Amino acid sequence: MIKTFAFTLLLLSCLTSMAQSFADLVAEVNKSVVTIQVLQKQNTGLGNPNGYTDAQGMGSGVLVGEKKIYILTAAHVVADASKIQVVFADGTTTGATIRRIDKTADVALLQLNEVASHIPPAKLGDSDAMRIGDDIFIIGNPLGLEHSVSRGIISGKHVEENEINHNRSQEFFQTDASINKGNSGGPMFNMQGEVVGIVSSILSFSGGFEGLGFAATSSVTKEILQQTGRIWFGTNVIPMSAEFCNLFHIPQEGALMVQAVVENSPAYFMGLKGGYVKMTIGNTEILAGGDVILQFDDILLNSNENITRFYEYLNSMKKGQNYTVKILRNGEIKHLSWRMQ
């Protein structure tokens, strides 16, 4: 009886210690987690090229790097943002700009306008060492509830290769940890407090969490963001098939239709124009009336393969490099030139 009682006390003590250590771990890494507030300018789609409305969005992110000026987040959180504000757990707020971005892997690197000197950055872990079944936890802003914590396991790992160079272009962890709107871009931590993923999306039929969430792995994130390229061009485009091109009288069998251009982006300064007339073709809703990109330097965008080559070429461009874009605007061929900043 005495032995049983002693064992019970020991078990309760261990469980209490584990709960306290996890809470301490969360409290420590939470300092590096941020709320990202974005402002987007969107055309109303009612036929006015200058008819814009402002839309606000929110996501999550995490401070990384010894310089304390870089934020990791999801590409889809910031890709169309004309203004980005970063809010730390202690209420400190500063602006940020996109440094590098990859929409395929859904990761982006932001640079803060001010050094976060008083905030400890998170450590990037080795996602390749993570196994299915390992414990993880996520901190973010689901449904605007800032710095919420959810806990789960790695449920699976999904990898897709790049068609051009056969490197990993997409690699996602699947998790059962609760993820909702606002979690996007937030960090997935291992139980050592290291970032092993950046929350990307949920698979849902209701719009809420249904047990399947995904995060881009830290290994692929590091591979992408340590490269010199991954240029943020500042456009939202849709590929045009041969049938699509024929419908719009495009003089080739493939192209990119510009939907929107982000303010103060390279595409904005070189003069590209987005669409302003809402249309639905099949199950696809588009903004027509904007520029159609036909060629980028010597790459004719007349096939899916060449469009993939274009993205690879764009991501390999160096600072100061000149480039020319051939477009179709209001039935006329035009050439726009710019120098990579």
Question: What would the keywords be for this entry?
Answer:
6-stranded antiparallel barrel; 341 residues; 6 helices; 6-stranded antiparallel β-barrel; alpha+beta
Based on Cα principal axes, name the global outline.
elongated
Spans of at least 5 consecutive residues with low confidence: none
Most strands sheet: 6 strands, antiparallel, barrel
Instruction: Kindly name the structural category.
Output: alpha+beta
The helix fraction, in percent, is 10-25%
Radius of gyration: 23 Å
List SSEs in N-to-C order. HEEEHEEEEEEEEEEHEHEHEEEEHEE
**Number of alpha- plus pi-helical segments:** 6
Please indicate the percent range of residues in DSSP E strands (runs of 2 or more). 35-45%
**Spatial order of strands in the largest sheet:** 1-2-3-6-5-4
The overall average pLDDT, rounded, is 87
Distance between the termini: 76 Å
Per DSSP E runs of 2 or more residues, the count of β-strands stands at 21
